[in-house]
Specification:
Elements (H helix, E strand, L loop, with lengths): L1 E4 L2 E4 L4 E2 H8 L6 E5 L2 E3 L8 E2 L4 E6 L5
């Protein structure tokens, strides 16, 4: 399965949920916004959203500071 993750092509051996993808690629999930194919996916839906071949995924970490 091939997807575009934050602008880079990534290959996965099997289907996975958005939640698993975020767990594998982000240091923490508390400040992440997930977008799949141009739509923001609510945190409550991450386990239910299966990543499909050809999906475009953007994961953004929110960083505070001053």
């Amino acid at each position: 399965m091939n997807v575009t993750l934050n602008g880079q092509q990534k290959k996965f051996n099997s289907a996975t949920s958005l939640n698993n993808l975020i767990t594998e690629t982000c240091k923490g999930k508390n400040h992440v916004i997930a977008e799949v194919n141009g739509s923001i996916i609510k945190r409550q839906e991450w386990d239910k959203r299966t990543i499909s071949d050809g999906d475009t995924i953007e994961l953004v970490n929110i960083v505070g500071g001053g």
